[in-house]
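Query structure, 316 tokens:
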């Protein structure tokens, strides 16, 4: 493209860019649906721009419908005619932030995980699969030792297994001495009486545990954190809690109200299901949805249902 070379599926830290030009440090992302408000994409954008990459996002359909416009826009970025942040339904551009030094490819260094705690937690956040794990929250876990990821895990469909279980099972003996990065405080006890994630982490011999968000469940009561500390394992909380909050928000809302969190969405991406009440008693319908295990429902933006829910203070 006018002498500018792009590569496909380029690793950048914890992420894989759709296309990237290393010379211009420009990432091109082709999104299958509208991603302006997607929290995962915000985290991904922040990571790349913080590491010296500019990010341009286009709907994937534009490759076929308006390829000339897409190419002209990319050329305008490369030629310096587009430099500021743009957030539009058809195009978003996030310019690189100033960095003092950026390693080639912005990959994880081998000097030790302590320097890159935030990067590994971002990876854990990216692993989570909201909308797939209800009634449990979606959690991501990354195990790192000697500056390298040795295992990853996510909450399974329907909430089992937990992310820590998946990561530890994959790691085996390699988990010993590793740092565990988890988006949610490890559980202290299981409703089915099984071995909790905090027990599994202690028994695996991890050297350190870092989690983003505290568990809002009254059933948890920080038993897991107390067990980990009691075993002499350093425990840190709150790392990127703001970035991971969207993963736990539906569960926190449920524990506070007894109802699923309802929000507007065009696509339903990341939600458990669409809220389609059969009766006019919206509160009772949401109570039934909660009893069925739903924690995060969506309604169509500006719909009559959205208006009705807001009138009843059942949706912000």
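Result returned for the query:
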């Amino acid at each position: 493209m006018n002498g500018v070379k792009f590569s496909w599926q380029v690793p950048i830290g914890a992420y894989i860019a759709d296309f990237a030009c290393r010379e211009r440090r420009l990432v091109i992302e082709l999104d299958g649906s509208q991603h302006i408000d997607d929290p995962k994409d915000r985290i991904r954008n922040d990571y790349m721009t913080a590491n010296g990459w500019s990010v341009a996002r286009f709907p994937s359909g534009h490759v076929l419908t308006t390829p000339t416009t897409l190419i002209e826009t990319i050329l305008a970025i490369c030629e310096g005619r587009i430099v500021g942040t743009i957030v539009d339904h058809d195009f978003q551009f996030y310019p690189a932030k100033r960095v003092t030094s950026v390693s080639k490819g912005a990959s994880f260094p081998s000097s030790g995980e302590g320097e890159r705690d935030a990067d590994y937690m971002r990876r854990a956040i990216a692993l989570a699969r909201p909308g797939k794990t209800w009634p449990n929250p979606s959690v991501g876990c990354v195990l790192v030792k000697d500056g390298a990821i040795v295992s990853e895990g996510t909450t399974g469909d329907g909430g089992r297994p937990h992310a820590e279980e998946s990561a530890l099972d994959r790691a085996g003996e390699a988990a010993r001495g590793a740092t565990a990065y988890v988006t949610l405080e490890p559980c202290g006890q299981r409703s089915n009486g099984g071995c909790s994630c905090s027990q599994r982490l202690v028994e695996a011999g991890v050297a350190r545990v870092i989690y983003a968000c505290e568990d809002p469940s009254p059933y948890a009561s920080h038993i897991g954190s107390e067990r980990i500390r009691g075993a002499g394992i350093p425990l840190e909380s709150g790392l990127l809690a703001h970035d991971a909050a969207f993963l736990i928000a539906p569960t926190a809302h449920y524990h506070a109200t007894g109802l699923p969190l309802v929000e507007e969405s065009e696509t339903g991406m990341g939600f458990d299901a669409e809220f389609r009440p059969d009766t006019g008693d919206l509160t009772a319908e949401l109570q039934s949805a909660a009893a069925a295990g739903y924690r995060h429902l969506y309604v169509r933006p500006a719909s009559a249902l959205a208006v009705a829910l807001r009138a009843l203070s059942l949706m912000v």
